[in-house]
Amino acid sequence: LKILNMSQDLMDFLNPNGSDCTLVLFYTPWCRFSASLAPHFNSLPRAFPTLGFLALDASQHSSLSTRFGTVAVPNILLFQGAKPMARFNHTDRTLETLKIFIFNQTGIEAKKNVVVTQADQMGPLPSTLIKTVDWLLVFSLFFLISFIMYATIRTESIRWLIPGQEQEHAE
Predict the structure, then answer these.
(1) pLDDT-based confidence at 31, cuts 50/70/90?
(2) 80 and 136 both lie in a single domain
(3) Which residues cross the membrane (predicted)?
(4) Which of 15, 28, 65, 69 lies in the 20 to 30 Å Cα band around 59?
């Protein structure tokens, strides 16, 4: 399982001319659904050693999320070469449902007796939530409040409240 960092591009890890299948997880470290899926996704490479497994933080790769229609996380796409072939759409995100999905799409059978272990709980994908400050959200709120204040001040009907502003009367 390879986790892409912010400077890496998904297309560098997918072979556009190949027919290899790769399962890609779009997740965010602060999403509780992503955290609950993480141990199950961590165990998949043991069950399917011939497949590739990638994970990327959708908040750091927003252009890829947009390109592949990732509206919510976690989102799992199966690629053949560099083309998305199938999307995992089940709400029950367990190792067994992931195995069934992969088998139905690729025909590759999972290894027997692969279960989620304590090591899968630890990583490489984190199964605990990471609390961070979303600076983009903070900036957006600051911009919105500033715009509302500016628009309010520029409104003619509110000018009489501001000291030094003369009321204009139409005669």
Answers:
(1) confident
(2) no
(3) 135-153
(4) 15
